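Open question from group meeting: does this chain pack into something compact, or does most of it stay loose? Before anyone orders reagents, we agreed to write out a predicted structure and look at it together. Recording both the input and the output here so the notebook holds the full record.
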Amino acid sequence: MKFVTTFLLGALFLCMSNGIRAQSTFYRGADLSFVQQLENNGAVFKDNGTQMDILEIFKNHSLNIVCLRLWYHPQDGYNDLSHTLAMARRIKALGGKLLLDFHYSDTWADSGHQTKPAAWQNLSYSVLKDSVYQYTKRVLTALKDQNTIPSIVQIGNEVTSGMLWNTGRVGGSYDNSTQWHSLTDYSIPE
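Structure tokens returned:
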């Protein structure tokens, strides 16, 4: 962890000393991953009494980025790749930006739960690493092919304790160089 912090601070100093500045874009966003499920269950959205597409409502109220969480094989069928592709088309059609949040799980991944997808549970370290890479590449290629490339890609969700437990778990009794190496192997392709 010390190396990562030192590296990031060094990179920031280098950028600042060379006159490179961070973009000044301020994002106003919302996670709208649930929209299709609500719509499929009859929900309608209104702004001042007028029924409208929820994305238009948010756009009209200064939303400039939409977060979509992506689950590997969700039980309820939502937040999978096909639904994400459909929502990405809707977002881009309105000129919006997309933040894609890879959970690398079949359900919620957060600081207390980073369960591997069921299909990946018993994979060896090297096969799991390749599976994460191939899956990420397949998703981003599908988005690129329909001209809906995300503006931001989030690798993992709430990963302060790592992801893809226990292989990529860090912190507590898992706070060692082997675990940190595993986590970075999943996060940074070769």
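Observations to bring back to the group:
The CA atoms of residues 142 and 149 lie 9 Å apart.
The chain is about 40% helix and 10% strand.
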